[in-house]
Amino acid sequence: MTNLYSPVPLHREPGAAVPPVRIVHLGLGAFHRSHQAWFTAHATDAAEWGIAAFTGRSTEIAAQLTDQDGQYTLVVRGPEGDSFEVVDSVVRAIPGTDVAAFVELAASEPVAILTLTITEAGYRLGADGRLDLTDPDVAADVALLRRLFDAQAALPGFEYPRTALGRVLLALEQRRRTSTPALAIVPCDNIPDNGHVVREALGALATATSSTLAAWLDSGISVVSTSVDRITPRGTPEDAQLVLDATGVADRAPVVTEPFSDWVLAGDFPSGRPAWETAGARFVDDIAPWEARKLWMLNGAHTLLAASGPLRGHALVSEAIDDPVCRDLVTALWEEDARHLTGVEVDDYAADLLARFRNPRIEHRLAQIALDATTKMRVRIVPVARLERAAGRSAAGCAAAVAAWILAGHDAVETRGAAAESRTARQVADLDPVLGGDAAFCARVDAAVADLTTKALLTESETA
């Protein structure tokens, strides 16, 4: 038993070599530390690639990691037990509010890669998947950046963009002004064709602010598409005690994750990259099938469980997937997904997902997954529903997912002429106008709402 009265603080040994900062990350959280930082630490050339990571919404983790020289314990939680390792690829942890430091580092010549985990909602996309220039924060950033760029003001100024992409564009303008070598931008959020989407969003923002910068983007950046996968629950206060008990190390910022990890990338790295493939990453020419499989099957099932599970009284993924009602909903969704996935194996993947979801030692909370539910539904459920309807099928599995989303609390936006259409149709139209105009699909959603409402009142034993 570890002596809990003499905990050892987590820190780097005096004189230990620290990798130079060549990667800047925006969105420092548990997933980045279990995934991209872990892959970087396990690459054979890890000593050459340090990460300077900026927080997104919270600044607390930056202070915690700074006290530990950027190091943290990764707890890999399998069904049979835990393993522990210290990950040291993050060499600087900085609050996201320090935009000046972000611009300085992201624009510096040694930095070759900018990775992003800012959540789907952080990109400020509209229902069409493009940058929403009417978003109040995006509009404010356009006005601010136009003033800065037109005046050729020194960067950064006293006022900073509000959005993540606005801050990225500010750093890119600094790279342009200093003729810094091309930067690879690597979005690691669950957006279909995320590299293309982010490239288009940055282009739209640049076009709205500086034609010079917009033209420079063609040679100044490469945007890499990715598919990322590693279930990583939000941390709890008990995690630190677990690490202390098991290792004797006082770690204020441990991360708990599952054994499985996957990273698929497609795109160019004009200024170099770590040998991530030596840690298990895959580099492919066409990421679309890998991305769709993961986005629709894993993330889509998570979104469905996050909506349906609480209706059945569940708080965790592992609880919900063991409920026959919820599991049947997931199975129906996967059957529809599989019809539109070519070039990748589906049956074994579904079996692996069930095993991963059922791992009782990973406390993946449905409330965490339910955040930004509308945005997630648009990229995880809507595309398959459209494909199914285009093929002349009912899309019943997708309709049930939409019904669960409605029951989880989505309210229709009242619009002119609303009396002429059902409330369900308005709710579906808020999610996707095409599906909202599909009377047969909306009727299917209506029926699923009634069915789930009934089942939400039943116990698991009554439906087994």
Write the topology of this structure:
Layout (H helix, E strand, L loop, with lengths): L7 E2 L11 E6 L3 H5 L1 H7 L7 E5 L5 H8 L4 E6 L4 E6 L2 E5 L4 H8 L6 E4 L19 H16 L12 H14 L5 E5 L6 H16 L1 H10 E3 L1 E5 L7 H11 L1 E2 L4 E3 L4 E5 L15 E2 L4 H24 L5 H5 L2 H15 L8 H11 L8 H4 L3 H8 L1 H9 L5 H12 L15 H9 L1 H4 L2 H17 L4 H4 L1
Parallel strand pairs: 1-11, 2-3, 2-7, 3-6, 4-12, 7-8, 8-9, 13-14
Antiparallel strand pairs: 4-5, 10-13
Characterise the protein shown here:
With 464 residues, the chain is of the alpha/beta class. It folds into two domains: 17-283, Rossmann fold; 288-463, Orthogonal Bundle (N-(1-d-carboxylethyl)-l-norvaline Dehydrogenase, domain 2), CATH 1.10.1040. 47% of the residues lie in helices and 13% in strands. The strands form four sheets. A six-stranded parallel sheet has the order 6-3-2-7-8-9, with helices on both faces. The model is unreliable at 1-5, 414-420 and 459-464 (pLDDT under 50).
Short key terms for the protein model shown above:
6-PGluconate_DH-like_C_sf; 6PGD_dom2; disordered N terminus; Rossmann fold; globular; 2 domains; N-(1-d-carboxylethyl)-l-norvaline Dehydrogenase, domain 2; three-stranded mixed β-sheet; oxidoreductase; alpha/beta; six-stranded parallel β-sheet; 464 residues; 14 strands
Give the low-pLDDT segments. 1-5, 414-420, 459-464
Determine and state the CATH class of the largest domain.
Alpha Beta
Sheet bearing the most strands, described? 6 strands, parallel
Assembly state (oligomeric): single chain
State the CATH topology of the largest domain.
Answer: Rossmann fold
Spatial order of strands in the largest sheet? 6-3-2-7-8-9
Name given to the CATH homologous superfamily of the largest domain:
NAD(P)-binding Rossmann-like Domain
- SS summary, helix count: 21
- How many strand segments? 14
